[in-house]
Design goal:
Elements lengths: L1 H18 L63 E9 L11 H8 L3 E9 L7 H21 L7 E5 L13 H7 L5 E9 L1
Parallel strand pairs: 2-3
Antiparallel strand pairs: 1-4, 2-4
Length: 197
Amino acid sequence: MKKLAMTAGFALAMSMSAAALAHPVNSGYVTDSSDTVWRTGFGECWHTGFWGQDDATVEGCDGYQKVAAAPAPAPAPAPAMMAADKKFAIFFDFDSAAVDSVSDIVSYVNGMAAVNSIKLIGNADYIGSSAYNDALSKRRAENVATALRNAGVNSDNMTVDALGETAPIAQCSGRGAALISCLRADRRVDVQITGKK
């Protein structure tokens, strides 16, 4: 009778262990029909005979801790804008208001993050009457403004002014062609651009 009870107990244990064999989700661990890993009275997880270190992927078993997903990287800070203040000069032939090129100015303005102001100040040399030179210097500044607008520069913050012959920078003497050539620096439009880059 004792042998029969032992045989029945052994058969019951075998059938229970067959029912509790490892489930593919928790490979290497003994589980019940709901895929819950069996634990000892000390809370340790029961291994099958086929358990290996590679099977230690069940949270709370054999020291395995689920690693939290790394937080998304913080967005890169926006580049800091710096104040920008740049001056250009456009020079003119004698008694002319024809603009050669504004491409350098256009490139600079297009590279700015924000434009606060574009000041255009026309100038003339002292040859001729003051009234004529005032008008000529204004035409020069207006022609530069038109050239910039035609090249796509926004004119909302653009101002046009003229100083005539009152702001010379050339130091010249003599007469005729030599004097005209020397005074080229006075035949100009000063362009001052402020904003942020």
